[in-house]
Amino acid sequence: MSNDRVTSTPFTKGLGFFVLLGIALLIILGIFVSPADVNQGESVRIMYAHVPGAWLAYLAFVMTAVSSAAYLWKRTRSLTWDRIAGASAEVGVLFMGISLVTGSLWGRLTWGTYWTWDARLTTTAFLFVTYIGYLAVRGLGGTHQQRARRSAVLALLAVLEIPLVHFSVELWNTLHQEASVAGRGTDVEMNGLMLFTLFLGVVVFTLMYVWLVLHRQRSLMLEDMLEDSGLDSALSERRAEATQAGR
């Protein structure tokens, strides 16, 4: 079976097309069409990448935990769940990195500094480092099943950090503003076009997440197959050497 046939399907090709189309539309609306903010001016345009990046990182890490739980449950135990968990965590780290970089740029324009040990920034950085550690644990030696078990346990512990990050702006006095759209209040004081562009960013990033996870988990499957075939070849060689030595 060719790599193209394994890693590409009509669905993923179509999904990739819509992702590219959505990114192009998001760039046009976010940079050229949506208005500047009354208080933050042009810097508010960073929001269209920063907010979707943060929320999709949350989604990715939650999906990593859900997939890990599915692997640990005997009725649904399959290495496919482990590969989905690993792929989702990798994409989540990517989105969290985007959120941290854009947040630093936004902070420089709004607060006058790229970084401050604010509660939201600090907990987000800690979450980012935690999942880099998760990916490192996945790379340790052992069988596929050993990798899946230890990674699943770590994923279920790591996901508990997300509520701490999300509610940090309410638990401590922080420079970071509270959620403008998904906060406790029901009134959203935001220009209609800005709000539409923000939701478009969330939709586009979500589709991008799905596309990336589908491709990455398939490539992880190929890596596992390659490793298994290499192990089988090595065992066959050892058996042949043992047979020759016994003659």
Topology:
Elements lengths: L2 H5 L2 H24 L13 H26 L6 H32 L8 H20 L5 H15 L2 H6 L1 H4 L20 H55 L1
Helix pairs in contact: 2-9, 3-4, 3-6, 3-9, 4-5, 4-6, 4-9, 5-6
What's this entry about, in short?
By secondary structure, the chain is mainly alpha-helical. It has helices spanning 3-7, 10-33, 47-72, 79-110, 119-138, 144-158, 161-166, 168-171, 192-246. Helix content is 76%, strand content 0%.
Which key terms come to mind for this protein?
247 residues; 9 helices; mainly alpha; single chain; globular
Characterise this structure.
The chain is built from nine helices and no strands. It is mostly helical and about 250 residues long. Residues about 1-5 have low confidence and may be disordered. The protein is about 75% helix and about 0% strand. The radius of gyration is 22 Å and the shape is globular. Helix 3 (about 45-70) crosses helix 6, helix 3 packs across helix 9 and helix 4 (about 80-110) packs across helix 9.
What's the tally of helices? 9
**Largest sheet features:** none
- Distance linking N and C termini: 39 Å
Mean pLDDT: 86
